[in-house]
Specification:
about 450 residues; alpha/beta; 3 domains; 7-stranded parallel β-sheet; 7 strands; about 10% strand; binds NADP nicotinamide-adenine-dinucleotide phosphate
Length: about 450
């Protein structure tokens, strides 16, 4: 394992180090659109050189043959899309380019005017291209461009993250269908969204539809999917957001199999059932986006959430695999790994009151990010950092998580009457136990 880690770190460094021999290519390092020509220049200077001679040993005919295969072309296009490079860039690697200025030099002879060096003005041409000609400029990347007039189904849209996301979808002109168990909550949410549209004078806002269903009853999922198909011919965007969280240590769950079953039912089987019900229509229309609201806990592997994280991991993995299969059908599946968000879901957990948490509006921004780019995953930098730590130093990550687990209190009611040790004593106790029970 250690060898793989060293390779994983060393390889990118090595590739970046290889000196260019005959060809170079600029990899987009940031968006220069909003900055001035100086920025374009900095961009132009900060290039990553790729040695085209690396693939020189492959005969041209073989390269061309391989690249004309549809699967290879699609993989190449996907890689280029991820890197933000134009697909036809490949033909210009090693392209024999000559800029002939002999006529201009002859005509300018004696005038005291000389042709500038390419390096001195190329950034201006690039800047002009980026500002006026880049085809990406003409794609509507606003939320309105993505969802206006489309049908967006948000489960758990009557509260917290789902409600904040529903506000944004309706404001962008989507037909927003919110689902929850309690009709009163749904009606209040619908009114709140409609009032917000009115108060902001948004005449382009979409309609809000409230549909009550207990999604933990899987037949209700089929009913909701059926109603969506009957009323709208299907949905364009499905946001699987309704969920249930349980915070309880594994050793306190040994006779609580039902905790594992209920988290799996609402967090995995319900979104799965809805997805399966709506998928045939998405495929038939050649368009669809399934957004699964999962959690940053999948990156931090937070103790006391085994049941919850197990169910979210199932949803996350299902989505990743389904997304790979459905790519060719025009359907994307995104997992939004939410950080801690201040919503009714976390309010019963006293331990979280003092912790920093995102607002539902911040969380809705992450949902928007999913809709705008349709990536496989949306996650926060802290989640990514935790993932990196677990990969390069798994034992340290486990130890840190265990110590945090030891000092944080239980939420389970039966554990509360036990006298609670101060955090410092709990931490020292945990370390002593670890040393005492040290594994060889
Ligand atoms: N809050 C966080 O810190 C956090 C962090 C990571 C991930 N998440 C995830 O984000 C999602 C939304 O959580 P939230 O914090 O916004 O929760 P919330 O404010 O408690 O909202 C939950 C929503 O789901 C609905 N719901 C619950 N059970 C349902 C059922 N059986 N059938 C249909 N609808 C149901 C609720 O409406 P009714 O009660 O009327 O049914 C409500 O609209 C969840 O999947 C959660 O796991 C939250």
């Amino acid at each position: 394992m250690r060898v793989f880690r060293v390779i994983a770190i060393a390889l990118p460094c090595f590739l970046a180090w290889i000196p260019a021999q005959g060809a170079s290519c600029d990899l987009k390092a940031g968006d220069a659109n909003s900055a001035g020509p100086g920025c374009a220049r900095a961009w132009f200077d900060a290039n990553l050189r790729i040695n085209a001679a690396l693939l020189g040993f492959i005969p041209n005919s073989v390269k061309k043959g391989l690249l004309s295969l549809t699967p290879v072309r699609r993989i190449r296009n996907a890689v280029f899309k991820d890197l933000g490079l134009p697909e036809d860039m490949l033909q210009f690697v090693n392209y024999p380019t000559r800029f002939d200025c002999r006529d201009a030099t002859a005509a300018l002879k004696g005038a005291g005017i000389v042709c500038p060096r390419l390096e001195d003005y190329a950034f201006r041409l690039w800047d002009y291209w980026e500002r006026n000609l880049d085809p990406d400029l003409f794609i509507d990347r606003t939320l309105k461009g993505q969802v206006a007039g489309k049908v967006v189904l948000i489960t758990g849209g009557s509260s917290g993250i789902g409600l904040a996301a529903a506000h944004k979808m309706a404001a962008a002109g989507a037909i927003t269908v919110i689902v929850g168990r309690e009709q009163d909550k749904l009606d209040a949410a619908k009114k709140e969204i409609e009032d917000a549209l009115k108060s902001t004078g948004n005449s382009n806002g979409g309609t809000v539809v409230a549909a009550s269903a207990d999604l933990a009853d899987l037949d209700s999922c089929d009913r909701v999917a059926g109603e969506m198909i009957d009323s709208y011919g299907g949905v364009d965007v499905l946001v699987n957001n309704a969920g249930r969280s349980i915070r309880r240590s594994v050793h306190l769950s040994v006779d609580r199999m039902h905790d594992f079953e209920r988290t799996m039912t609402l967090n995995y089987f319900a979104p799965l059932r809805l997805t399966l019900g709506l998928l045939p229509h998405m495929r038939a229309r050649g368009f669809g986006h399934i957004v699964n609201i999962t959690t940053m806990g999948l990156q931090t592997d937070t103790p006391r959430f085994a049941a919850y994280l197990g169910s979210k991991a199932a949803l996350d993995e299902f989505g990743t695999v389904a997304g790979r299969e459905l790519l060719g059908d025009g359907i994307a599946v995104t997992s939004v790994r939410m950080p801690l968000v201040r919503t009714p879901m976390i309010s019963p957990t006293k331990a979280y009151r003092a912790l920093p948490a995102a607002s539902p509006q911040d969380a809705a921004e992450l949902v928007m990010r999913a809709l705008l780019r349709r990536p496989v995953r949306v996650s926060r930098p802290e989640g990514f950092a935790a993932e990196v730590l677990s990969t390069i130093a798994p034992n340290t990550a486990r130890l840190v998580a265990h110590l945090v687990y030891a000092v944080m209190p239980e939420s389970a009611p039966e554990a509360r009457p036990a006298p609670r040790r101060p955090p410092l004593a709990a931490g020292v106790g945990a370390i002593t136990r670890l040393l005492w029970r040290r594994q060889p």
